[in-house]
Amino acid sequence: MDTHSHDEAHVSDRVLDISPQATQQQIRDAYKKQALKSHPDRVPSDSPERPARTKKFQQINDAYYTLSDPSRRRDYDSARSYHGFPSADEEDDPDTEEIPRTEQPSGSFPWSSFGFGAKTTAEGERFSSEQFGGVFEEMLRDEGLAEGREAKPTGKFWSLVGGLSGGAMGFIVANFPGAIAGAVAGNRLGAIRDAKGKSVYSVFQELPQGDKAKLLSELAAKVFAHAVGS
């Protein structure tokens, strides 16, 4: 399915709920919050909410792709200003305005020029996952759950995973033959390392669905707490 022909996209700064004057750091912080809030893995794979969440998550990633690059952002701002479309702080409800991605008549906003340009739903999902992965690893580094350039899981991460479900130890043993576990007390794991050297996002993607949801909720709580305290 061609998402640009049959889908719709919000105005980028409205998707991220930011001002047109937002700094790059504010854009990145807003992306973290919106992506964690709307991530499809926050709900079961068979949940009726899943399609809407997947669409919203792609819109968030599309918006971040556009606004996170200074050159793309300048082009977007210039086009939006030229065509007279409102920004995030010029409307009351950020969820009411959706702009079709279909080709527009002369004089309308050229939405197809912005975003990452996925041709299919699968391609959009793949790009969204890849883009989110880099920011996900950054968030986990900030929380001490990943370390180094390759974002390797830390003992703190494995302890968190161990507390997600009673089956966490079985997951680690089944999926990481090279893993070495230290002392285990209840659901809290001791020092664990993955001999294969997987990144923390790779590990996350292989977690059972329920544990993914719990980990995202835990991370969201930390990120939102920082935002409130800042």
Description of the structure:
The protein is mainly alpha-helical. Helices cover 53% and strands 7% of the residues. The chain is built from 10 helices and 8 strands. The chain has helices at residues 3-6, 12-15, 24-38, 50-68, 70-83, 121-142, 155-162, 168-175, 200-206, 209-229, and strands at residues 8-9, 99-100, 146-147, 152-153, 180-181, 184-185, 188-189, 192-193. The strands form 4 sheets. A two-stranded antiparallel sheet has the order 1-2. Strands 3-4 form a two-stranded antiparallel sheet. The longest helix has 22 residues, at 121-142. The chain is globular, with a radius of gyration of 20 Å. The model is unreliable at 1-10, 88-111 and 182-192 (pLDDT under 50).
Annotate the secondary structure layout.
Blueprint: H1 3-6, E1 8-9, H2 12-15, H3 24-38, H4 50-68, H5 70-83, E2 99-100, H6 121-142, E3 146-147, E4 152-153, H7 155-162, H8 168-175, E5 180-181, E6 184-185, E7 188-189, E8 192-193, H9 200-206, H10 209-229
The largest β sheet comes out as: 2 strands, antiparallel
Query: Within the largest sheet, what's the order of strands?
Result: 1-2
Order of helices and strands: HEHHHHEHEEHHEEEEHH
Measured on Cα atoms, how large is the radius of gyration?
20 Å
Distance between the termini: 42 Å
User: How much of the polypeptide forms β-strand, as a percent range?
Assistant: 5-15%
Runs with pLDDT <50, length 5+? 1-10, 88-111, 182-192
Please work out how many helical segments DSSP would assign.
10
- Considering DSSP H and I runs of 4 or more, what fraction of the residues is helical? 40-55%
| Derived structural class | mainly alpha
How many E strands? 8
> Overall mean pLDDT score?
73
Based on Cα principal axes, name the global outline: globular
